[in-house]
Amino acid sequence: MGLENESLEIIKKIQESRERKEDYTLRYSYYSRWWELSGIEDLAIMPPGSSFKYVLQTSPFDFWKATIPPESLIGDENDEYYGEHGKEEINNMIKTMKDVINFIEGEEPHTVAFTSIPMPSGDLFELVGLAKISNNGTSFVFCNDLDYLKYLKSKGL
User: Which residues, at least 6 apart from 47, have a Cβ–Cβ distance to it below 8 Å?
Assistant: First the structure.
């Protein structure tokens, strides 16, 4: 079984545990397994079909000036690059971020934004999702590039 599918199975167990109102200790063991699956502290592998492959949970960050608000990414139907397809894609990314953070923290993020990183091919950029919750300020980075997230971890994020 691939790590993405194993991630999905663990998430299902967490959801079932919530529905049965089982002791939090058991549910916490599932969460721990989900976060440990990648072998990298605070990095989880998203299940198949997600808008992003990975999510990195970080300490709070407050520098949002270099980020792109979602509404700036969504073009109108005449937009050459994004158009209606892009709007749906961005909205799916936002939904994924909100759902995952709500799943982990029990609350939706108060801030959701994007940034972009160059893809290894050098001819395209990839969107990276950023989000932060109110409760304790925990921040999250959603990305498809594992090396980028490893780099962020190496820099102490």
Answer: 4, 5, 7, 8, 11
Residues of the chain falling short of pLDDT 70: 1, 23-24, 26-28, 75-85, 123
Contact 148, 119 (CB under 8 A): no
pLDDT of residue 130: 94
Q: Are 119 and 152 in contact (CB under 8 A)?
A: no
Would you state the pLDDT for residue 132? 92
Count other C-beta atoms under 10 Å from residue 2's C-beta: 9
pLDDT of residue 112: 93
Task: Output the 3-class SS for the chain.
Answer: CCHHHHHHHHHHHHHHHHHCCCCHHHHHHHHHHHHHCCCCCCEEECCCCCCCCEEEEECCCCCCCCCECHHHHCCCCCCCCCHHHHHHHHHHHHHHHHHHHHHHHCCCCCEEEEEEEECCCCCCEEEEEEEECCCCCCEEEEECCHHHHHHHHHCCC
Q: For the whole model, what pTM was predicted?
A: 0.82
Contact by Cβ (8 Å): 3, 53: no
